[in-house]
Amino acid sequence: MRWGTITYAVELELSETVADLKDRLFELTEVRPHRQKVLGLPAAAGRPPRDDIVLSTLPLKFEQRLIMVGSREQDYSAVHDAISAAAAAAAGTVVNDLDFDYSVDDPAAGARVVKDLSAYRRRLERRIETTEIRIMNPLREGKKLLVLDLDYTLFDCRSSAATIADLGRPGLHSFLASAYRYYDIVIWSQTSWRWLEAKLTGLNMVFSDQFKIAFVLDRTSMFSVTSRRGRDERTHEVKALEIIWRKFPQRWNAQNTIHIDDISRNFALNPQSGLKIHPFRNAPVSRATDRELPKLDRYLTLIATLEPDFTKLKHKHWKHYCTRHIPEWDSLFGNGAGSSNR
Ligand code: MG
Question: Which of 164, 181, 199, 304 is the most exposed place for a label (fewest CB within 10 A)?
Fold first, then answer.
């Protein structure tokens, strides 16, 4: 089990439970069980293992690798109260499933704007306070920031299949491996931690030799804003990149950050940094034709190599950008070689 930079060997009997595992981790790290997030435990009957699950019922390997994230009590007290407030606020949110377009370049053509900036400012500050960044893998100097949505961006969360891995978007792992050369990767999903850890584990995204996830944010780091177009108003939650930027001011900002999501309202507060990707649904069928990730891989590589300032880009036109920069691509990575030859 790895916690931060330290690796612990933990021995357990198969008759023990997940709660016993967490007690053992508490003895080693002083991180209380309810603060621990354990990544890498296989799902039990398609669900994330609960604390009372007996280890023998999980398809564990003889030597199972795990990552634990979480902070000790003394690191934590400052944010404790604020987290309950955040959860209470999220519970009252109206979530509208219909997306609407956030376009930066053409507001007159019907793009929405966020109403009442001063009201969301307070929420933003509160969320910056309550968000605890649990680093899973060390950040690297000079890397740009890639924030990725999970559901329908990297996998189809609704279809059924033998394993979650079967629902991954085509090219998922090579996309992440390629992006990892230029970007530190953050997953931000509007879901709870328990599901998030099960999904990442099921998609084999936790222990890869070719890419590492820097950290993960869940729904508790989102908050609601009201958007309007004309007289039509909607309340919805957003992923405010400023939360990350303020935590790492020397490292990341709008100039070196890109956020990819299938729902554009998620980047309502940072429309310029957002790239709306076509959602990956109905995996059993669309798996045969979906090529969004290999294309996006090329775009991310090109802009990381050619663009010192992402605020100059209009991500909406990303496919066109790739077409226009075929000569640069060929001179950088070999004529016609494509991503497979890099
Ligand atoms: Mg999504």
Answer: 181
